[in-house]
Amino acid sequence: MKYILVTGGVISGVGKGVIASTFGTILKCCGIQVTLIKIDPYINIDAGTFSPYEHGEVYVLDDGGEVDLDLGNYERFLDVTLHRDNNITTGKIYQHVINKERNGDYLGKTVQVVPHITDAIQEWVERVATVSVSPDGAKPEVCIVELGGTIGDIEGMPFVEAFRQFQFRVKKENFCVAHVSLVPQPKSTGESKTKPTQSSVRELRGLGLSPDLIVCRSENPINHDVKVKISSFCHVAPEQVICIHDLSSIYQVPIVMEQQRIVEFFRERLKLDIPLPRPKKFMHKWKDLAARVDNLRRDVHIALVGKYTRLEDSYASVTKALQHSAIAVGYNLKLTYIEAANLEKATKLSNPVLYHEAWQMLCRSDGVLVPGGFGKRGMEGKLEACRWCRETVKPFLGICLGLQAAVIEFARNVLGLEDADSSEINPETKHPVVIDMPEHTKGQMGGTMRLGKRVTEFENKDSILKYLYGKDRIEERHRHRYEVNPEFVSQLEAAGLKFVAKDEQKERMEILELKGHPYYVATQFHPEYLSRPLAPSPPFLGLILASCGKLQSYVARGCRLSPKQLSDDEFDSDYEDKVTFSLQTKLNSIFVSNGEITSTSEVEVKTGLHKLTITDG
Question: Which of 133, 304, 345, 405 is the most buried (most CB within 10 A)?
């Protein structure tokens, strides 16, 4: 097993997650099986009880693990399926060691950070590194480990010490350190400052880890002289200094890094079996994707009505899923974050400016998304957004709490149940259309929700989401404590709010659609977790298509994007767009693409991306 340790310096949030994902992406394109581990030095057992303002969104895995959002980056970039043990926290390690101590495994010994905690970290990494994360069950060859925080943080010291020992445990040729550091470029001087990077590397080396690769993050490109300076002061060769400046999209990062000969470096340093020269189509999917992102000319405006809009990372996966769909359709996503509380009538009285600005942004949007959340704050604003989309026939997608909000709003304003509510918001309501699940364990918050991948089965043949998914049975990831009350389902459906899909036991409502509305859809699961850059999530794709006015034509084509919206790699050769027309011309021949039409009789044409086939004449 080969290991790449990614550390960070100067500031947190410098982009270690994207850099680690990029390493994995490039190696995977070389035919190397890769797995990834994220280490978070906080004492929490997992990320499940975090406020989104504290640490960004909580990302959920197939096995129900509530983990750091960087694992979402890993899964999206590499299209792998990680497990809860791929996220290590100080809390998990200490809990593991304390349980062993209680079981008598250390009987007679004093349990200490060194060697017991550091040994537990090394054993955990070695164990998880061998677990397959690919659909074919292939064993990983390279394990990329991202150490959260910055070098010098007191909570990260046990992990740094563990890897100082680990490099000798696995031998030098199997262990590599990549240090990601910020190179600030103050506008007052306009020059790149290397001192922070020098100090960060000096501290890392003082702790026993010497970086083999320094990845410099900066606002603008760094010139060769700065690279040489960093090289000479940080004890690495100039070619081992990689510069990643702010790019037009994250999809450009693997391309820019590959251009700096990162493949050759890993091949030599870790003795990897990577054939050279690389094939002509090496990383062509990423290059095509990055090119398409940079050449989007039309805009689609989506309003996200949420409760945690002050921090964009609170909705990281939702944002990525919207981007994936917009890119696939050929539109540039213009996402507006609207604080749900600002849509409420109480805000109109206390701060009319905020109220009217929020409603203006909502009214200017092409489509609306109401994501998940917890608690009472902002709920009335979400209900107002649902009502407005329902009454104005605006494309709408609700996720988790967004589905529950749609049900509550419909019950109040269509069924006339004025006090209809969720038992989470108002336990005393006479009409609890949303209730807590029986198996929800009250009193203990961590890991007690309905979590992980579960089966959803469609019941309604006319469901728009069934067309978009193209199957009767789907698997999506869940994270919720509350569900639609089955006692109100028949009443809601009779009024036009259809629950088109349920769980395997036919007990829980999973998807709702509003009869007569072009796209008023909500899901109890979180489809954003399984969205990928080259395989957008169907509910999000439906929202973007409906917002662009292209949903009907998409469904009419059998839920396939038109050839103009597909790259060479994505084009499905079985797809046919049949066009019948008459050629009325006095010219001897007409050249179309690389096909030649010489007959003036009526012909049927199969139009492809770079081909035109004449089937008659």
Answer: 405
